[in-house]
Fold this sequence. Notes:
Elements: E1 2-10, E2 13-19, E3 26-31, H1 39-48, E4 64-72, H2 77-85, E5 93-101, E6 106-110, E7 113-115, H3 117-127, E8 128-131, H4 133-139, H5 145-152, H6 156-184, H7 186-203, H8 209-221, H9 223-258, H10 263-289, H11 294-314, H12 318-336, H13 338-383, E9 391-397, H14 407-411, E10 420-426, E11 434-435, H15 436-439, H16 442-459, E12 464-468, H17 476-490, E13 494-498, H18 502-505, E14 510-519, E15 522-529, H19 532-544, H20 550-563
Parallel strand pairs: 3-13, 3-14, 8-12, 12-13
Antiparallel strand pairs: 1-2, 1-4, 4-5, 5-6, 6-7, 9-10, 10-11, 14-15
Helix pairs in contact: 4-16, 6-13, 7-12, 8-11, 9-10, 11-12, 13-16, 16-17, 19-20
GO molecular function: ATP binding
InterPro entries: DNA_recomb/repair_RecN (IPR004604), P-loop_NTPase (IPR027417), RecF/RecN/SMC_N (IPR003395)
GO cellular component, one term: bacterial nucleoid
Amino acid sequence: MLQELRVNNLALINRLDLDFSENTAGLIAFTGETGAGKSIILQAVHLLTGGRASASWVRNDCDQAVIEAQFGISGREDILSLLHEHGLDNEEDCILRRIVSSKGRSRIFINDRLATAKLAHTLAESLVNIASQHDQQLLLKTHSHIDFLDSYGELWEQRELYRQVYSRWQKLARQLRELQEQEQGKEQRRDFLSFQLKEIREVAPLPEEDEQLVKERDLFKSSTTLAELIGKSHFQLQDKVTPLLIEIRKKMEHAAALDPALKELAQQSSSASFEVEDLEGNLRNYLNSIPTDKGRLEQISSRLAQLRQLQRKYGTTLEEVLAFADRVEKELNSLDNLDEQIAALIKELNGIGEELCQRAGALSHDRFRVAEQLTTAMQAELSSLSFRQALFQVSVTAGDFGAASSSSAASALSATGGDAVTFLFSANPGEPPKPLSEVVSGGELSRLMLAMKCLLARRDKVDTVIFDEIDAGIGGEAAEAVARKIDELASHHQVFCITHLPQIAAYADAHFLVEKQVDANRTFTTIRALSREERVQELARMLGGDNPSEQTLLFARELVEGRTDKRKR
Length: 569
């Protein structure tokens, strides 16, 4: 049950704190003039349940909007298990918080821990059921009827198992099509791949070979300058420096023999002499290693040209070229046993196709059974909504599941099975029922959605139901019937109803007024609970406008007083 709702800086709401802890079951009505901001309540819940956020919903001159709701979940093992699975445990409450910044960024928290919008949406499906005008439009879309039927029949688990098999079948069918396409152009593909592999193998590149060749080529280009520099350095060491250092070393060794105090200096001169001799030798070796063979330079240029051609065709680096060659070789090997792969895949596909058709057939059988139940249940619900002579039927058209192992039978299936489900309706005696989208009016659609939601609410585990103007397009006797139906649902659910009908508001266990006010040139939407006398005034306004007559006030009072004890009757 929704216990508390707090909203800060959302659209025209500055600050809002609503406490529903005393209304864990019953009807909670929200009324107010058109444009007062009643839709903001639904928008707040929409954001909490993972709906798309927009910076435009943040109140002007504010950095962020914060929406928070606290739900009581004691005893709800399904919700507790989901929270535990994601490390969001809380035995008594579930707190959803959505923060939307003025820059469009958004974060969702569940029990004070950051969560994804997807998880919030999954959780919300077990917490609250919203019946908006958008949901009413879904009734006009035939493709959504199968979802309503499966929800009523509690067939979603069975449908999900079917969908998993269907996904496997689709994946295998896609693989088979790809292999069959390869089979058609196999020889041409084999020739092309063989040519590519031959071209790479004939060049036989090595990893990083091009980098080494570039270094060697650059060395060739600098060989003349290097030979001149190193040659002169070596000549000067050999002709001048080395002989002088050898002579100095010998003299210092002689001096050290005469005066031991010169021993360290003699060692330094010896070290210097030996280091210079080593340097001379190293320079000589390097000088001898400088390439001078112009034929080698031509070889390098030719080899680099071959490697560059491979890189232009098969990869930016030689490593990528070699990896490409590996892939080509593997594909060539797979082409050699393509017939075997296709045969094995067809066998596997037929096996899964048989299972798929069996599951689709079982699902279809259950849908026919549930369709009869839903037809009977909706007929009863509509009768209590002033549709005494209306007809409602659930039409199920099944696919052909006879050839269970044939791929053609499986190919005719979809992600929902092989059935087409259509809701048929006739409001007039003697007229055959037709698809809803062809015959239903706005007021009739509202009552049909209410009937459907009441049936589904009795089946699912959701404790809180929100109706957003479910009363659109109805009045008179139909309005009274809708009010009684919502009141009936509120006897075992927590029902929030945004309404324009005084008949519905009169049944409320708690009545909130949504108003728009202007203060210091700023517009605010406020929501406050009404006292008993204030409820009379609000119902009178809903009945007769801003200046209701005494007779209207008297009727409004009778509505409130006449339904105060409705739970006791």
